[in-house]
Amino acid sequence: MNFIGIDNGVSGSVAILDSAGAVKDFFPTPVFRDLNYTKTKAWVNRVNTMLLSEFLYSYREDCTTAIERPMVNPGRFKATVSALRALEATLIVLEGNKIPYRFIDSKEWQKEMLPAGLEGPELKEASTMVCKRIFPGVEVKKPGDGDSLLIAEYLRRNND
Fold first, then answer.
1. Strand, helix or coil at 89?
2. CATH number of the domain to which 7 belongs
């Protein structure tokens, strides 16, 4: 059984664990820079669906997947639009490869995987520290990069 954790977004990551908890794969969400679709000059990062599909294809058999529900906040319009665009691209890849998935709220996996009482930036820092403890051989470069590992581990621990 493969457990796939996806930290949604263009700065997110994807982690695949086996049933023993060994890391089979861990990589940043593949993206490319593209000219925005608006009339003014602007650049956006977009999910590289072809590359993401190639990465996930071999894990599609006997797997369970959780994708973190995106942040939707009208006060942070640009970030919300980016998160929703990344989500749609990722869902197209999952559905195209017939990979089953469910959504997970950050609070759900954080409650079990991180210490209580953390807020804001502390969550990303704690996520990195916990990842380094659970997966000592895996390089987690910046705070928050390991969220997909913890999502996958949460799935593995709660597999019914």
1. helix
2. 3.30.420.10
Please count the structural domains in the chain.
1
Cα 11 to Cα 75, 143, 147, 160: the distances in Å are 20, 11, 11, 30
Segment 107-126 shows an average pLDDT of 90
Segments forming the whole domain that contains residue 119: 2-157
Angle at 141 between CA 117 and CA 56, to 5 degrees: 100
What is the reported pLDDT for 64? 94
Predicted TM-score (pTM) of this structure: 0.90
Rounded Cα gap, residues 158 and 33, in angstroms: 37
Instruction: Name the pLDDT band for 88 (thresholds 50, 70, 90).
Output: very high
Instruction: Tell me which residue of 134, 127, 81, 132 sits closest to 106, measured CA to CA.
Output: 127
